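re: that complex we talked abt at group meeting.

here r the seqs, copy pasted straight from the sheet so there may be weird spacing, ignore it
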Amino acid sequence: MKFRNFKMVDYVVYGRGCFDQLDEILAPKRKDEKPVVFLLDYHFQNDEAFKSRIPLRGNDQLIIADVTSEPKTSYVDSIAQELKDKFGTVSGVIGIGGGSTLDLAKAVSIMMTNPGKAQDYQGWDLVKNPAVYKAGIPTLSGTGAEVSRTCVLTGPTKKLGMNSDFTPFDQIVLDPELIKGAPKNQRFYTGMDCYIHCIESLQGTYINAFSRSYGEKALELCQDVFLHNTEWTDESDEKLMMASYAGGMSIAYSQVGVAHAVSYGLSYLLGTKHGIGNCIVFNHLEEFYPEGVKEFHQMVKQNGIDIPVGVTKGLTDEQFDTMINVSLGMAPLWENALGKDWQQQMNRERLRALYERL
Ligand code: NAD
Ligand code: ZN
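got the structure back, here u go
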């Protein structure tokens, strides 16, 4: 058995208001006249008060990240190419936003130092050169993208991350104040990504004590925020931010499961976003995760959230096949969920029936 020797985020600063330390944190990373590039989630594009707190110096660049849809490899390439054309290289790339913006920042920083196109690096350990300095500053909590060794991208042929030791951030800034203004539904969908990660990893076959320690804590924090104390307070933001961090750490030695495998298919075909897609799928996974799904239904009700239904109605056989192909391609997820003989348990017919229920 070979144990994973995984790369983690180098520096973590946590605390309400710690965003204002960013200038100080970046100062030693500034090289020659090369700019620091801030990729800002487009949600904040007109938020002048927040933008004025971003420490722009010299020829630093503020780029608004269009995350209307989740990041595409072509978008990564276009940002990186523009920066290379203008500046040769940059001092760093700082992502400020939800999981999509964080992933975009990771990918752009990698493409500043690696030849070819982003799509060439979708997979495991394909990245050759260390990225430029990168920092991640979440404004939504739940994905764990702030700590993970991947950045999920949709390319011309697949939706798959650049999984590599060069992918994790050098620095993350965890300031619970930044997640305060999110819409209720979005906060829930992204928060449930963490909850679902926990259920899938804790009940998976890959789990070990390392991952369980983080996963159980993350699960407990999610239950606290969405089940036991559903009032939205500063404290619940603080807990949710740490749930996401711990949930991300838990995945380092484990894997997600059925909800993610199925929702990847939905997202590839229909462009369904990750958080809501997981909720749409998990809503119907009683046969795999009976207790988790029961609790999920309770949380949906208690928080007054709408989970779409009937999203696959009227799709053609060909479209179902596309989703099934994408989903069955996620072998490690199925193996984690169902064990080594997963192919005997999950076949095209069973999966088709599951997609039809969504
Ligand atoms: P998101 O980043 O896609 O953002 C969802 C929406 O919320 C966007 O419209 C965004 O502009 C907006 N938003 C962001 N911050 C806000 C705030 N504070 N207030 C109001 N609106 C805000 O959502 P997400 O759920 O955080 O991230 C999903 C993405 O993360 C997907 O692309 C998924 O593939 C990726 N992901 C990555 C990993 C990883 O390990 N790298 C893990 C899970 C998911
Ligand atoms: Zn997820």
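couple things i noticed - The chain has a mean pLDDT of 96. Residues 160 and 208 are 25 Å apart (CA to CA).
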